[in-house]
Structures are given as C-alpha cells and as structure tokens.
Amino acid sequence: MKGPVVAGGLVLALLLGFVIARSTERAAPPAASAPTAIPSHAHGGATAGDLGGLSLSAGGFTLAPAATTFAAGAAQPFTFRVLGPDGKAVTRFVLNHEKLMHLVVARHDLSGFQHLHPQMAPDGTWSVPLGLPSPGIWRIYTDFLTFDPSGAQVPVTLAVDATVAGDYRPVPLPDPVRTAETGGMTVALEGTPAVNATRPLSLRVLASGTPVTDLERYLGAYGHLVVLRDGDLGYLHVHPEDQLVGGAVKFWLSAPSVGRYRLYFEFQRGGQVHRAEFTVDVR
Fold it and tell me: Are the C-beta atoms of residues 73 and 133 closer than 8 Å to each other?
C-alpha cells in the first residue's frame, strides 16, 4: 500500500501547487500599461498635450467637404460631412460647450482667425457661411464629440486646407508680448507653457488698468483658448477652470514640443465676444 499512497500524495501535492500558482498569478497586479496620449483638445478644465487637426482623417472618422476653393472676401456656404468608420455620414454628435460642432479657421500665416458654429441637416450635412478675406491657403478645423463603434464618446479634430486664389502676401507673426488690446480692454497673459509639463496659464482682463469683474460665460465657460503651432498648424482647444481664479481665466496647458505658438483667447463681456491673440515661444 505504501507505493500507491506515496504516488497519490505526489499527485495531490502537484495539484495543490498548480492551484496556488494560478491563484497567485490572478492576484498579481497587472503590468503597467504604456502611457496614453492626451487628447488633442481638453474641455472643461485641465490639460492637453499632442496637437490635432493635422489630417482629414483620425480615429476612423473622415472630413468630407463639398468644396475647398473660395473667392476672396465674399462669404459663401461651406458644407461638409463627417464620415464614420463605416463610411456613412455621422449624424450623432454630443453637445459640447453648448454646440454640436466648433469650426475654427485660420490662414497658414496664423492670421484671420474665426470661430464658427455650423448647423447640421438630418442627413449629416453641415453648413455655415464662410468668408475668407484674403488670398492664401487657409486651414479649416472641425472640432466635435461623437461616438466610436463601441458607443463610447470620443473627441475628434479633423482639418482641411482651403484655397483662395490671388496675390498671397503672408503677414509676419507678431513677436511675443504679454499684453493684447481688444475692445478697449487689455488682456494680460500670465504663465508660460512648458514641454510635456502641465502648467497654469491665466488670462486677466483689465479696463483702464482696473481688473474687469463682470466677465460673462460664453459657450458655458469664462473663456476659450485655441492654440495653433507655427509650422504645421497643429491644433489645440482648451477650456478653463469652471470659476475665475483670482479674477483671471485659468487654463492648464502642456506643450508637446518646443516652437512658436499662436494663442487665441475668446471671452464675453456685455453680451459681446472679444478675442485677444498672443504669440508664445516654448523653449
């Protein structure tokens, strides 16, 4: 009997060892996953990293404009569709800062900034009157929230170049300064973006040297900040902290690379939207 008992004991020990090993394996913490890229636009608060708006397609979605040739000056309808991973026009979008679609326009020299809000027809065709005032190549960005095939909400930024024929004379990018004038007010820029480090960036509005205390919410926030990178026109759309901080509109920003950037800060006062622009060097 001794032989069978010993053999049975060995089998039992092996089985117990297997069970313990599997249990330990399941209990072990998973390996650290690779860091994920920060979205190309951050709404409602803190941070942003890699820039978007560099392609017609991203994340399975494609921008399909009806036409991209404009005459200088006169506004004409700009129509487009967003095609989903299935190749069909997307018709489900998420209300994002009071709009389903943000359309941002700038010439390649970073002049002529516009922020518009197209309307969508039931078939998924978007349209908006668009006037491009001068010859050159213009970048048109579509910035929206929609759903991926799994049903999860995803932020998407797609872009296309539009052409205005004529004598193109680029405007030199203004040098970096800390204040900008708009609507009889001065906007002061506080803070400096850094590469791959999230830092505060505040915009303070003053009238006759006195801080403005009656800013109004515009599209659900006290301010909006669009950032374009000089060279490739990489795009970033950031929204601030929900409340003013020390009377200023406070953003959190991380620059993805060294270089020169143009900042477009929009805010509302007395029912009117104003825009202040800054050039910033990130070293």
Answer: yes
